[in-house]
Amino acid sequence: MAKPLNPKDEERRKKLFEIADELRERTKKQVPEEGFRVVITGKGGVGKTTMTALLARLLARDGYRVLAVDEDPQMNLAHALGVPKEVRDKIIPLNRNLDYIEEKTGARPGTNWGLYFSLTPDVRDVVDRFGVVGPDGVMLLVMGSVVQAAAGCLCPENALLDAVIKYINLRKGEIILMDTQAGLEHFGRALARGFKQAVILTEPTYNSVQVAVDAAKLARQLGIEHIHLVINKVKKEAHVEKVERILNELGFNDFTTKTVIPYDEMVEEYDPEIEAILTNPESPTYRKALELKDILLRYAEQPER
Ligand SMILES: Nc1ncnc2c1ncn2[C@@H]1O[C@H](COP(=O)(O)OP(=O)(O)O)[C@@H](O)[C@H]1O
Ligand SMILES: [Mg+2]
Description:
Carbon monoxide dehydrogenase; ATP binding; globular; Rossmann fold; ATP-binding; CobQ/CobB/MinD/ParA_Nub-bd_dom; single chain; ParA/MinD_ATPase
């Protein structure tokens, strides 16, 4: 039989329970029950994959369940996240997983599938079957990019990826980060339904700001509520001014938040891995990624802009 607690122990136990309750309360407030979804986009090379990986790892370290989705044509999110090579080598992106596409849509890409295949395949098993668990418990799903064609492509690959996005919108209790270069155009409303926040990255170059503005306008049109701009690889103050000038010239400067990240030798040196940054809290990129993570958590709780 357990010894009865003396009054001092009893007091201490009560205190501990109080602390535990408070912690639970705080976590409950922190983790939106629905979970939330963020799309990370911008021109090729601006730092999407690096930032997606940093956010995913930092959120996972905070104790959240994180699903990172790779739709970037370069498909190096696994590498950035720190998934070991042996595991990476076995990943088949969904858009090239001919067996799965055929199993789900009834048509095999590259064959003459005719007119009949399912546009609404049931992909509820996709994360269980193809998700890969990386460092800090981050779950990764490599989708591969949509087939972009002038008039859109009514093909089984895209039907499958569309269904995956729709399915992802229904997943609860986790934070979903999607790394994509051109996904906003393709997934459009399907994406906006579940994704309430966008992180748009740009460098201090005209072209990348232009791409960022196009993406931001589209995101706004779609009704994505919070659009965060990241001005990345900034070498001097004048670069921020330049980006501001271009934004104003292009007639769009309506971002929910802006984060400026300096050019960081260490990021480039270890590219595409971010492990060195995560183990070096002194790195400016680490600190800025923390800031951005907190911004996402904060705005996840705000239904309106
Ligand atoms: N803040 C930064 N400072 C220096 N180099 C960076 C920074 N952010 C990203 N990079 C580098 O830029 C390159 C492109 O980054 P990446 O994340 O692959 O971009 P994207 O996914 O948008 O194509 C990589 O070599 C990466 O290490
Ligand atoms: Mg990338």
